[in-house]
Write a structure and sequence with these properties.
Blueprint (H helix, E strand, L loop, with lengths): L12 H22 L1 H8 L3 H4 L16 H26 L2 H21 L7 H30 L4 H12 L1 H14 L4 H25 L4 H8 L1 H18 L9 H6 L1 H11 L12 H25 L15 H25 L12 H8 L3 H6 L16 H28 L6 H29 L1
Helix pairs in contact: 1-6, 1-7, 1-8, 1-9, 4-6, 4-13, 4-19, 5-6, 5-9, 8-9, 8-15, 14-16, 14-18, 14-19, 15-18, 18-19
Length: 456
């Protein structure tokens, strides 16, 4: 809630700024995984001049470097590590340096990715440079998002929702940018260059938005009082992120993980008082209450990251070469997943089923393991062991619809149910524990993707 003496957010400029900042923070990750076909062609040794970059159905290119798997793993591990590291960085590195420095670093790294479109390079060095970029970009993204969540802790909770909404649209935006690049009609190299320049523009807009905040009365009012407001406001914001029945539910794994900063930042300040509180929450006690919900969250992300995008990006259309086969993977894999995942998360704004006492939740979560063999038996040309049992495109589309909706819904459901299973003063610990298990699920899924890829 905004304070009564606070100025108005004229023309909603602060809200728009945080929305764009949210969009900008997840653009790099989404643009990397959506462009997997481009990277596969470059790594196949076709070269940027002869590759049909972003312009043909090249999802069938041999993935000798296991790019799909490595890009997922090297995105999640730095995210976890630097989210935790940011909990200590805030004590010695000014917030402006962390946010602005991270934005500039991400901009330069993505500009390098765009520049490599014009550079002929052998697959080995290209793979190494790209993986290093992925690792560093996600490291800076973790620091950036964690710092922005800390800043949002001083703002009304509505602005956290706007920030998360912006992040939720990043995947859809990346998929649409891919489709526009493919349909633009320009030559392949120009199309790829335009695609990778797009997130650079998004990062530049984020920098402008961040630099404009101190010049807006509404933002200046809250940010100037950060030291006196942060403790109470961060508690309110974090609680709403984890409990809201509206749209305050984090809309991606990365976003939820970054709320850990808010939990850890307050621990050094609260330690002197905690021994005096008879109701000090015990981590073990809270874990005993939420362990089943936490395990469900781990399993949801383990299944999702084990096949998306490592396996799903390899599926091609079974129809003859043409327009549909060209657009099949960007539409049916990335765009469809992001839209349906967002829809699944939105469903928890209207109902929560099954509830925290039901044993149906573990059953529903375990049933998602069926998606692993289903996707592996779809039309993936590069295979040496398993047969193709579902060659028609309709099978893959149906599996993806159910896969994405169930992922979004079950992620939001578990994050909503965990705080309801503990006492009010234990919700902070519950949020930190759920964040840990979320990151564990991401890492397990990324690691398992290597095994499933090898079994094809």
């Amino acid at each position: 809630m905004a304070r009564g003496d606070a100025p108005r957010d004229s023309y909603h400029l602060v809200g728009i700024s945080f929305f764009i900042l949210g969009l900008g923070t997840l653009l790099p990750w989404n643009f990397f995984i959506t462009a997997i076909p481009y990277f596969q062609v470059r790594l196949a040794g076709a070269g940027n001049s002869t590759a049909r970059i972003l312009s043909t159905n090249h999802t069938g290119s041999e993935d000798a470097f296991n790019f799909n798997n490595w890009v997922t793993l090297l995105s999640q591990l730095p995210l976890l590590l630097f989210t935790l590291l940011n909990s200590f960085l805030y004590q010695c590195v000014p917030e402006t340096v962390r946010i602005l420095g991270s934005l500039l670093a991400i901009l330069m790294l993505f500009a390098l990715t765009a520049a490599l479109v014009k550079v002929d390079m052998s697959p080995g060095p290209f793979f190494s440079i790209t993986m290093a970029s992925v690792c560093f970009i996600n490291s800076f993204s973790a620091v950036l998002q964690g710092s922005l969540f800390g800043q949002l802790g001083t703002m009304p909770s509505t602005y956290s929702t706007l920030f998360l909404s912006g992040q939720g649209l990043a995947g859809i935006f990346a998929a649409l940018a891919m489709l526009l690049s493919m349909a633009s009609g320009v030559d392949a190299e120009t199309s790829a260059l335009g695609y990778f320049i797009t997130p650079c523009v998004g990062i530049l807009m984020s920098i402008v938005c961040y630099l404009s905040l101190p010049h807006l009365k509404f933002a200046r009012y809250y940010l100037a009082n950060k030291s006196s407001q942060a403790q109470a406001q961060e508690l309110e914001t974090k609680a709403e992120l984890l409990q809201s029945d509206e749209n305050g539910i984090p809309s991606s794994p990365q976003k939820v993980a970054l709320t850990l900063d808010l939990d850890l930042e307050k621990e050094p300040e609260s330690e002197p008082d905690e021994p005096q509180k008879p109701g000090k929450p015990s981590v073990f006690t809270v874990f005993q209450k939420i362990w089943l919900t936490a395990l469900c969250l781990v399993l949801v992300f383990t299944v999702t990251l084990s096949v998306f995008p490592a396996i799903t990006a390899m599926v091609t259309s079974s129809t003859s070469p043409g327009k549909w086969s060209q657009f099949f993977n960007p539409i049916c894999c990335f765009l469809l997943f992001n839209i349906m995942d967002w829809l699944g998360r939105s469903l928890t704004s209207y109902f929560l089923w099954p509830d925290e006492d039901s044993r149906l939740l573990p059953l529903l979560v375990c049933l998602r393991f069926l998606f692993v063999p289903l996707f592996m038996l779809c039309h993936v040309p590069q295979r040496s062991r398993l047969p193709i049992l579902f060659p028609q495109d309709a099978y893959f589309i149906t599996f993806m619809l159910l896969f994405a909706v169930s992922n979004g819904y079950l992620v939001s459901l578990t994050m909503c149910l965990a705080p309801r299973q503990v006492l009010p003063h234990e919700r902070e610990v519950a949020g930190a524990l759920m964040t840990f298990f979320l990151a564990l699920g991401l890492s397990c899924g990324a690691s398992l993707s290597f095994l499933f890829k090898a079994l094809l």
